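Batch job 17 of 40 flagged for manual review because the log was empty.
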Amino acid sequence: MREETCDVLVIGSGIAGLSYALKASQHGDVVLVTKKQRAQSSTNYAQGGIAAVWSDDDSIELHARDTFVAGAGLCHTSAVRMLVEEGPARVRELIDWGVRFTQEQETVSLGREGGHSVRRILHAGDLTGREIERALLSAVAAEPRITLLEDHLAVDLLVRGTPPRCAGAIVLDHRTDTLTRYNALVVLLATGGMGQAWLHTTNPDIATGDGVAMAYRAGAQVANLEFMQFHPTALDAPDGSTFLISEAVRGEGAILRTPEGAPLMEGVHPLGSLAPRDIVARAIDTMMKQTGAPHALLDLSPIPAERIETRFPGIMKECAARGFDIRREPIPVVPAAHYACGGIRTDANGRTSLRGLFAAGEVACTGVHGANRLASNSLLEAVVYSHRAAQALPVSLAQAARTSDGRSEPVAPLPRGRERDGAWQAVRASIRQALWEDVGLVRTDARLERAARRLEALRAGMNDGSVRDPEYIEVRNLLEVAELVVRSARLRRESRGLHHNTDYPYRDNERELRDTVLERAWS
């Protein structure tokens, strides 16, 4: 196995990983690995925008209040205050790095999305993530102390010492089938989400929960994995493909309707079609189950055609490719797994419970989102908390340098089975089917128990994989996070935010006002 050394190893090339790498490079040499092409991140697919207090109509208190309301009582107060207070400065930093947000009448255009009481969403048309990714990759390319490696898939973290410290990672270059041990003083996980664990998702194929799975195997705590956000409006295309229809469309005036044309959210919530995502998604799911309808309809007729063309060119193009002219007809939409509100448990500076390991972005659980994320707070959380992790870096580097003796190893033996082309696709499909059917928008104890049994049966067949097989590595991680999601959901005996269990239909603030924390038990 090859061996390389760096000061900082960053795993993931979205907004959290790239912005952190730019700041970390001021303190040492950075290696950034990403498992596909450099721009293939969840950030690149983000449409709506980034929320921040930007106008005189808005305030820190108002943004915080909206975040708390969406979070259903589980948001950490200090984490939310940090997010909304530090957010505007981090957005200005993105602009300084070259991000071009949409302008209207010589000022930044602000959109509105579900759960927001005022317009505060900075955006680049409906391709905000792509624009942020472009600017950050350009800045990274100009920084000589950052080495960016494409098609490099992290397999497992390296740990050494007592108490244990993260000291790097084993990484597979899947173009050459070469394994490399990257020894690092500090590791940041910025691997994004786990939406591919569900059959229907807005997430790209890369969102296989790699960071959460690796961190858990290495001994780090994970938290609140039962709270998977289902986006209410994913295109229900005739070819079976899924495409996100941004919440910003409803922010501009689009209305959710039943297939018969009745306003779907009327009488459900005071904000109507702009209610928080968990409420809207469950309302659509309930309507579909009660009526047998295959989808709801998103009616854009209240929005002028020219506004649709300028504000949502990406959505219009994608829908047109699937046979829909959204200027003239409603969009058929269904809920789909979208964003993990839980993840690797971190403190205010991105530190995990495993020394030397940091996490930022969707892979982390900072306490900001509680039981349900407010729209467009995700990109903001990524830049705010990756910045805080970078601020903590000098101290972490010094601590690691003092304890760098001894050889690091993966916490468990690497899989040494044989490579089997295409053999793991069926396992992947079974995982996704199990979570979609039994751990979806509406859950029961019986369904969760059935999901646990289905995953246990799949686990029994996972002993024959190869560390050099990218498909196996991803399926291994998917199964790990799927099991963690089910365990977390079974521990929460109430309904709150994104976790709705009909056996416990109400919130239980007396016993359940807590984070669900899991940690690997060492035998």
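Reviewer: the log was empty due to a logging misconfiguration, but the result itself is present. The chain has three domains: 2-227+341-410, 236-336, 425-516. Unflagging and moving on to job 18.
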